[in-house]
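Record 1 of the preview.
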Amino acid sequence: MPTGKVKWYDVEKGFGFLSQDEGGDVYVRSSALPEGVPSLKPGMRVEFGIAQGRKGDQALQVRVLDAPPSVAKAVSKAQRKKPADMVNIIEDLYRLLENIEEGYRAGRHPDPKQVKPTAMLLRALADELER
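->
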C-alpha cells in the first residue's frame, strides 16, 4: 500500500489531499478515514489504497501511521491562561451552549451565524485544556 503525509485536510468540507512518498498528490474524502478519526492534520503519516476517480487518484481506507506532535502539548505550561481567565471563557461558552440547547428543546437547529463562532470557541477551549 502507498504511504505518504497529509498535505491538508478541511474538516468542514470533508476532504483534503495526501502527498505520496513516491510523488504526486491524492484526493481524500472523509469517508476514507478510519472509524473514530474525524479529521487529518497536516504532517500525519498515513497509509492508503488508491482508486482512479473522475479527476485523478483518490485515497481509500486511510490508516494513520503516526501523528505529528501536538502543538498544544509542545507549549510550555508557563504559557497557559490564568485560571481566572479560563473561568470567564468557560462562563461565556456555557451561556452560548445554553442558548443552543434552548433552541434544540424548542425543535430548532441553531442559527448558522451562531454555529461557527461556537465551534471555534469549543476548539480553542479544547486546545487550551490540552496544554
